Every structure is written in structure tokens, then in C-alpha cells.
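Good morning C.,

I know you're traveling, so I'll keep this short. The sequence:
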Amino acid sequence: MLDGELLKSRFLGSLLGTGIGDSLGAGLAWGAMGPGRELAPRYTDDTHMTIGVAESLIARGGFDEEHMLLTFVRNWEREPWRGYGPGPPIIFRAYRRGLDPAEVARSLYPGGGSFGNGAAMRVAPIACFYYDDLDELKRATVGSAKLTHTHPLGVEGAVIQALAIAYAIRTRPGDIRPLDFAEALFAEAESHVFKRKLRALRALLLEQPDRRRIVKELGNSVEAFNSVPTAIFSFLATRSFEQALRFAVGLGGDADTIGAMTGALAGAYYGVEDIPAKWLSELENRAYIEHLAISLWEIKALGR
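The C-alpha cells, ready to paste straight into the viewer:
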């Protein structure tokens, strides 16, 4: 059982890490941030939807499909300029017109919906809330993913990311064993695609590959299977929050989302104390993200 303060630090680390990784990756696209600044002045939809997940979990005391979707819709309506991909706004508008959002989500792309990384990028609050009950974690993650990403590979990517965050939270400080961690995730994978990627991830941990090979074998694009393994590798192949984030965004491609997922993982293991103060000071809406993380912790640790 984790000490209460350690658990609090890890919840804070995972949610703040999501925002920092997102903003650090987004900063590459923004270009010059100003003297000495590294984070983009605004986070993207990655953090915006993570906030929505946390808000709904807190309001309902757990996963509530209808409430979480409504929270997404309301947050998007207030701030539609956060860089949302094409799919979620279509689903949200359809919901407001009284259409079945699940049917709309399934019809958006050939093969039964999106297999992008949008469900995985926002999953940190669910992983924190259900870190101690992996069956409930999987149930809630699948339900949350299917609000926008109905393709099995999009759902599986979210589940693998959520499990990785939960494993990071559950691992005692100094006890991380990257090969065992990767093997545990491989055992949870269901599709040939994710099994192949996680097998490659484990093999790469045994070597010192250059970044070009990492991108070639694990990917750095928007598909869940080309980004979730990359974020996990970035966490496991480094030894601090800052190292993990710089490594992840340095791979290029979908840097904000890979950064967000890596930040969620690294923050969940190293805790908020390992996040550079400079990055914390630059993060937009930091106080509110901290409030959400502490509220999640209070429900779990104090039963509030």
C-alpha cells in the first residue's frame, strides 16, 4: 500500500505531467516562446480533455459515460480553439442535435472509427482513480475511449496507456524494472499490432538505439499504436521526469501528444517533486490542474 503523501505526489505528477508534456511538445510547433521559455503559452486538446475526464470523475465519484461526454461537449463549446482533431467536434455537434454519438463515432472512419491516440492522451485521471482496481480501470478506460474512439486499436491504446500509468503509480520508488514493466504490458496486449510493438519496445530497451530507429520501430505519429509504445519507451529508457520529456518530444512527429502521455507516465512514477520548477511555473492553468489531482486523491485516499 502506498503512503498517502506519495500517492498524492504521483496523482499531481501524472496530471501536471500531462499538461507539461503537452505544452512542451506544442512549444515545438509554436517556435520561439520568449526569453528562456520552453512551454507553449496554451496547452492543447490533450490537456483540455484530460481536465474534462478528471472533472467528470470527481463530480460523479467514478466513471459515468453520459456525464463524461457532456463534460467534453461543454468544455469544447467554451474553448473550441484548443487544437481538436476533426473527429470529436463532429461527435459533439451530433450529440447536441440529438443523434447517437456512438454511431457517429463508428461512422467517422473506415473500419469502425478512429484508432488515433486521442483516447490514450486523456486517460491519466482514470488511471489515477482506478490504479488499485485494474478490472475497473479497464472498464472505465474502454467506456471513456469509446466516447470518441470506437476502433479496437484506439481503445486498446488507451487501455495499455492507462495500465502503464497505474503500474507506474503502484511501483515503489527505486523499484522500477523496465524489462519487467514492458513484459507486464505485453501480457495485457490483445491485438497482433500492439503485441508486435511492445515486443519491439522490450528489445529496444536491451540496446542503445538511435532515435531514427526508435521512430522507425515504434512510431511517432497520431495512431495509438504508433505513439503509446513510444511514450512508454521514453519513460522506461530514461531516469527522470525531465529526461523522459526531453527524449519524447525530441522524437518529433506528434510531439504534444507523445509528450503528454510520457509526462503522465513519468509524473505518475517520479511524482510532482521531480518536475522542474521552471516548467511548473510556465504551465497554463496549473492551479486548477493541481486542484483536480488533489480532489481525485482525496476521494481515493480520504474517501471524500
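Safe travels,
E.
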